[in-house]
Amino acid sequence: QVQLVESGGGLVQHGGSLRLSCAASGFTAGWYLMSWYRQAPGRERELVARFSSGGGSTDYADSVKGRFIISRDNAKNTVYLQMNSLKPEDTAVYYCNAGGTSGYWGQGTQVTVSS
Q1: Side-chain half-sphere of 60: how many Cα atoms within 13 Å?
Q2: Is the alpha carbon torsion for 66, 67, 68, 71 positive or negative?
Q3: Environment class of 48 (CB within 10 Å of its CB; exposed 0-12, middle 13-18, buried 19+)
Q4: pLDDT of 30-83, one tens digit each?
């Protein structure tokens, strides 16, 4: 059974950092397009960062470039999102995704950045 379990969210002050984790089970994450999305209240879900399938390249939303880093540990079948210099506008539920928008989703983890 495929599962994605996010963790690491929480409340942080403006300028702070958090690291989100996405533990995958039931498949090999290294073979899939792995991404982080987020959804803020009243807004559509948006792509934040992703690995290409095979993990050879990464892409970031313009709003997080230079502040967020996506990484992976294939031995642990886990994908991470290091978030630095957090801003109030980064407040959202963050979701891990495998295989694109028609693929698999985690349950989400709340990130709240206070001003």
Answers
A1: 13
A2: positive
A3: buried
A4: 778 899 999 999 999 999 999 876 667 899 999 999 999 999 998 999 999 999
What's the CA gap between 17 and 33, in Å, rounded?
Answer: 25
- How far apart CA 70 and CA 61 sit, in angstroms, is 12
* Alpha carbon distance 12, 32 (integer Å): 31
Q: Give the pair of three-digit tokens for residue 93.
A: 């539920």
The pLDDT, as a whole number, for residue 28 is 80
Structure tokens at 97: 């995704």
CA angle 55, 102, 29 (to 5 degrees): 30
Residue 42 backbone phi and psi in degrees, to 5: 75, 5
Gap between the terminal Cα atoms of the chain: 40
Q: Which of 92, 90, 96 is nearest to 68 (CA)?
A: 90
